[in-house]
Amino acid sequence: MSNLEESPMSNLLEHLETLTDSRHAKGKRHSQTATLAIVLLGMLCGHVHIKARFAKQYQPQLALALPLPKGKPPSIMTIQRLSLRIDVEELCEVFNGWMKSYYQAEAVAIDGKSINSTVSEAHGKHQNFASIVSFFGQNTHLVWQLGVLESQKQHETGDDVG
Fold it and tell me: For every residue of 80-142, which 3-state class applies, written as one string?
């Protein structure tokens, strides 16, 4: 792992280590840091829906860079359970802090993806859901920043993302 000590990956892991882990100690097999790194890397590589597919496809590379038990990535259920427990705004803050060291001036495209299992009042007039909004550099092909947007909060307050 010495070749990763000064890499962007080790820097990302250091940032992710600062996140609150609200899981119970009993039954933890995969670290929150490694699992979230897989989720973020999957998103950055365009795997929007099922990060477990990304993890399986790149298992050898991930096993070299992350502390994976027996070299195996977390299951889809592990990723989903963690996704439901994580403070998404805190995760976005950590990601944005990591990316600040890579910022460059360039044209940016903005895109949003809804977060699974965040819909409330699905059939009512006050339907709400959360989305992750990404700011994508068109020259560097990097996601420069992430933000959280809740449809009702945005609609009611008119606040900006970020």
Answer: HHHHHHCCHHHHHHHHHHHHHHHCCCCCEEEEEEECCCCCECCCCCCCECEEEEEEEECCCCC
Q: Which two tokens stand for residue 7?
A: 């890499």
Q: 92 or 120: whose pLDDT is higher?
A: 92
| Residue 101, number of CB atoms within 10 A of its CB | 9
Q: Is 107 left (phi over 0), alpha (psi -120 to 50) or beta?
A: beta
Q: Convert the pLDDT of each residue in 30-86 to its tens digit.
A: 899 999 999 888 887 777 666 678 888 899 999 998 999 988 998 888 888 888 888
Q: Which of 87, 112, 97 is nearest to 144 (CA)?
A: 97
Each as own residue / partner, the long-range contacts of residues 80-87 (CB below 8 Å, 24 or more positions apart, any chain) are 80/116, 80/117, 82/23, 82/32, 82/35, 82/36, 82/39, 83/39, 83/115, 83/116, 83/117, 84/117, 85/22, 85/23, 86/19, 86/32, 86/36, 87/19, 87/20
